[in-house]
Amino acid sequence: MNKKLKLWELDRVSEEEFKQQQKFPIIIVLNDIRSLTNVGTFFRTSDAFNVQKIYLCGITATPPHREIQKTALGATETVCWEHRENIIELIDELKDNNVKICSIEQTEETLMLQDVRNLPKETYALVFGNEVNGVDQNVINASDQIIEIPQFGTKHSLNVSVCAGIVIWEFAKNNM
Fold first, then answer.
1. Where are the alpha helices (DSSP H) in the chain?
2. Rg (CA), the chain
3. How confident is the model over 79-103, as a mean pLDDT?
4. Domains plus CATH for the chain?
5. Of the N and C termini of the chain, which has fewer Cβ atoms inside 10 Å?
6. pLDDT, tens digit, 9 for 90 and up, residues 52-86
7. DSSP H or E run through 27
């Protein structure tokens, strides 16, 4: 029999240990995310996959907020984050610090997600866009890479926080 583990049996690091541990070279940039539960899910996923930082840009809500906390489950206290009003200024700053900008979007020329394993080992900022309009065109224009998740159904659309889980995992496993 394969026994399901209880929470206290998972050998998790403490909040302080998490804050001190070496992070994967992954930065998350949220481009006008309007749903507070999506924002909370980004925090929780970023904690799970050991990302460096989350930038909440434009209209993206910031903690503390009850609706964010419902899905973050405390990850707003462990994951380093910052709000920036102007995403293009942030992108320029990240590029000046040798961070490669990857927008997650569908465009004329994309790198399919399964091919990120061939990217050089560098620090990547993964930009996720608004639930309706996606990543702003000016951000796409400033990106080093546009990454697309292959999809095989009729919708060709995923919830942005589901998209984040898939993409962040793909980048995280390249750093394990």
1. 15-20, 36-48, 66-72, 87-96, 137-142, 160-173
2. 16
3. 98
4. 21-173 (3.40.1280.10)
5. N
6. 999 999 999 999 999 999 999 999 999 999 999 99
7. strand 26-31
